[in-house]
Amino acid sequence: MVQLWAAAAFFLGIHLIVAGSGLRAKIVGVVGERAWLASFSVLSLAGISWLAFSFNQAVLGPNHLFWVAPEWAYHLAPLVVLVAALFAVIGVTTPNPTAVGAEALAEKPETVKGVLRITRHPFLWGVAIWALWHILVNGDKASIIFFGTFALLAMLGTFSIDDKKRKRLGEAWNDFAAKTSNLPFAAIFAGRNRLKFGELGWWRILLALIVFGGLFYAHLWLFGVSAVPGWQPY
């Protein structure tokens, strides 16, 4: 469990303390933007790998179970994860000024469409939904640390990105932020935007369904646990 804590601290640290602070600008000033992005990508991949390995080790050792989820939570899990997949896949394939190198999109009024009407951080909210539901259905210490790391990073990341973009883009960001929201559907409920399903893109929805279907079917093979209690797909 100590190794899992260390992996979680490393993964959160490189994102929140290094990439999410003024330290990033200092590093970029020394090594350049491309070298920074390459190095950060390698560190992130290493962090995820370390987290996954440590989690697999932790669940085999002493691992306190804090609660047992109700049966309905297990059966509802596929639907919740489907929603998470839709947010994540549609989000990552939609042009978004919150993405690295896409800041210029904030100045274009036509940018705010599709999933950005729902939230300006669709991918991160997809990760958060996925992680939080896995914490609910698992209820053990290792899962709380592992999935909690992703949930915490995703939710704090939305605020960190907003802060960095606001400082970097100024009025262009303020105009974009005024038409969108961090919290899903908040701008729509507030009357600052309206939902248009046709803008989501049928191919994005189809891609999300394919990704979800693949993970749903392979869940037992990949993680040793069926996506639905008692279901043995192979």
Description:
The chain has 234 residues and is mainly α. The chain folds into 2 domains: 1-63; 64-234, no CATH class. Helices cover 68% and strands 0% of the residues. It has 9 helices and no strands. The longest helix is centred in the middle third of the chain and has 29 residues, at 141-169. The mean pLDDT is 93.
Structural class: mainly alpha
CA-atom Rg in angstroms: 19 Å
Low-confidence stretches: none
What is the overall silhouette? globular
Number of strands: 0
Mean pLDDT: 93
Helix fraction by DSSP (H/I, runs of at least 4): 55-70%
- In DSSP terms (H or I, runs of 4 or more residues), the helix count works out at 9
Would you list the SSEs in sequence order as H and E? HHHHHHHHH
Number of domains: 2
Distance from first to last alpha carbon: 32 Å
Fraction in beta strands = under 5%
* Major sheet characteristics: none
How is the secondary structure organized here?
Blueprint: H1 2-19, H2 23-31, H3 33-60, H4 71-92, H5 122-138, H6 141-169, H7 171-179, H8 186-189, H9 202-223
Write a concise synopsis of the structure shown:
This protein has nine helices and no strands. It has 234 residues and is mostly helical.
Descriptive labels:
9 helices, globular, 234 residues
